[in-house]
């Protein structure tokens, strides 16, 4: 199961960098289009004026947010988003065409021209793009079916990683008819043209086997597009009876979960658990895992789940970007064994349009400086990787403070972030069925 899935590439949801302009409320349908407004949003750091205006229907889509996604289920109470891009290519519609084909939407967006032009992401990546362009978007954004999970996939808590995915189908809407649903940037998606294949892929990802692999092999939690680089999902074959069976059981799990969440059917939870057990057995067959090995995987997953706490309600702004957009810092791995001296890697990525000079990074644990290193200069669109040795620690959860200082055009800047380091207890039981033996259980 450990490996790459080149046929199932994952992408981030749409990043507007100014949600209050694009996330709209439909007031009513009029002969000339839809009357919309842009109400204030909870947690929105930047606000714009509120307007009411008629826009064309064609560029409005249903919107789903991170808090709406659970295992096997996505809440259907969608919002609305304006996406001024061509669904066939994902490219922004050029201004001359917007003015002719969508003059009302262009007029609405023009109300916020200054604010949209001043977005950091637009300044970094928007050279030559219209002022209203959005980012992290492609033709995949408009695919009818999507396998969806959260960017922060239920953060590691104590000894567990919680991961949940679900299939997102086209929405039947009152104002727009059938439309593909757009994801915001707190979500990750794998696009599909075919629903049967989407349910198959979700069945694999939600299995105990995949969950253990994800918990053990994905360390940098701020980005979750890399899961399909670690988890090898066999390419769906509609003629393969096992693939078809997995797709059917996955769809069944979605149907049961929908009733559990929307109709408060507590009596169906046992039925859902039995369906998940069947899915585990099918996925085990898919990878040639024996019943005994599957049982060991479940035992290991139980060990990892000890001490898990309930998921907190997310705010609208689920991802807090670094203080300097365009400069990213990652530290991995963030899951280690107790009493193990482990080398950790620090990667600094310069996505600014200018070089980063005189860089220096410090990582602090409590009152102890774990590393204090010069990273020198990093050219634009380049990365630099450093390493340091983590001291032996007892099992538990630790906060790492990361301080990056650098200069851009001789102007001093700094980024301060935190990462959570998880140190896993290694008992004799977990040595037998845990991380140490994972490769043997899941295959090379």
Q: What would your notes on this structure say?
A:
The chain is α+β, with helices and mostly antiparallel strands and about 450 residues long. It has two domains: about 1-320, no CATH class; about 325-425, Immunoglobulin-like. About 25% of the residues lie in helices and about 30% in strands. The chain has helices spanning about 20, 95-100, 105-110, 115, 120-125, 195-205, 210-215, 225-230, 240-260, 270-285, 290-305, 430-435, 440; strands at about 10, 25-30, 35, 50-55, 60-65, 70, 75, 80, 145-150, 165-170, 170-175, 175-180, 180-185, 185-190, 325-330, 335, 340-350, 355-365, 370-380, 380-390, 395-410, 410-425. A six-stranded mixed sheet has the order 4-3-2-8-5-13. It has a five-stranded mixed sheet with strand order 16-22-21-18-19, with no helix packed on it. Helix 2 crosses helix 3 (about 105-110) and helix 7 (about 210-215) crosses helix 11. The protein starts with 10 loop residues before the first strand and ends with a helix. The relative contact order is 0.12.
Structural class: alpha+beta
Shape designation: flat
**What is the CA-based Rg, rounded?**
23 Å
As laid out across the biggest beta sheet, the strand order is 4-3-2-8-5-13
Q: Using DSSP, what is the number of strands?
A: 22
- Which runs of at least 5 residues are low in confidence (pLDDT < 50)? 153-160, 219-223, 307-324, 428-438
| Helix percentage | 25-40%
Give the N-to-C terminal Cα separation: 7 Å
Strand content: 25-35%
Give the number of domains. 2
- Mean pLDDT, nearest integer? 85
Number of helices: 13
Give the biggest beta sheet: 6 strands, mixed
């Amino acid at each position: 199961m450990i490996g790459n899935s080149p046929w199932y590439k994952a992408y981030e949801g749409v990043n507007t960098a100014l949600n209050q302009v694009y996330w709209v409320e439909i007031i009513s349908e009029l002969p000339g289009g839809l009357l919309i407004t842009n109400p204030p949003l909870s947690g929105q750091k930047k606000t714009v004026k509120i307007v009411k205006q008629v826009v064309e229907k064609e560029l409005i889509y249903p919107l789903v947010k991170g808090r709406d996604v659970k295992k096997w289920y996505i809440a259907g109470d969608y919002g609305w988003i304006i996406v001024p891009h061509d669904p066939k290519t994902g490219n922004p519609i050029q201004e001359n065409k917007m003015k002719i084909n969508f003059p009302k939407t262009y007029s609405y967006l023009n109300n916020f021209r200054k604010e949209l032009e001043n977005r950091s992401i637009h300044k970094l990546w928007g050279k030559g793009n219209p002022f209203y362009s959005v980012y992290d978007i492609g033709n995949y954004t408009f695919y009818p079916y999507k396998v969806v999970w959260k960017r922060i996939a239920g953060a590691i808590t104590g000894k567990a990683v919680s991961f949940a995915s679900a299939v997102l189908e086209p929405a039947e809407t009152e104002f727009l008819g059938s439309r593909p649903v757009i994801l915001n940037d707190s979500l990750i998606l794998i696009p599909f043209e075919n629903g049967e294949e989407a349910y198959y892929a979700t069945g694999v990802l939600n299995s105990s086997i995949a969950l253990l692999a994800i918990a053990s092999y994905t360390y940098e939690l701020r980005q979750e597009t890399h899961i399909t680089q670690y988890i090898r999902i066999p390419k769906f074959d509609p003629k393969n009876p096992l693939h078809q069976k997995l797709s059917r059981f996955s769809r069944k799990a979605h149907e049961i979960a929908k009733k559990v969440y929307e109709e408060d059917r507590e009596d169906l939870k046992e039925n859902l658990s039995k369906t998940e057990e069947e899915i585990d057995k099918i996925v085990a067959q898919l990878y040639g895992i024996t019943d005994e090995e599957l049982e060991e995987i479940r035992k290991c997953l139980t060990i990892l789940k000890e001490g898990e706490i309930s998921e907190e309600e997310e705010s609208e702004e689920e991802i807090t970007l670094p203080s300097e957009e365009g400069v990213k810092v990652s530290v991995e791995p963030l899951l280690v064994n107790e009493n193990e001296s482990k080398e950790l890697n620090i990667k600094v990525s310069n996505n600014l349009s200018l070089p980063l000079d005189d860089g220096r990074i410090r990582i602090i644990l409590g009152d102890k400086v774990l590393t204090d290193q010069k990273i020198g200069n990093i050219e634009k669109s380049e990365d630099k990787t450093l390493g340091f040795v983590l001291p032996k620690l007892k099992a538990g959860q630790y906060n790492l403070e990361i301080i990056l200082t650098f200069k851009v055009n001789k102007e001093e800047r700094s980024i301060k972030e935190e990462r959570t380091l998880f140190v896993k207890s290694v008992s004799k039981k977990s040595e037998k069925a845990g991380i140490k033996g994972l490769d043997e259980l899941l295959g090379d």
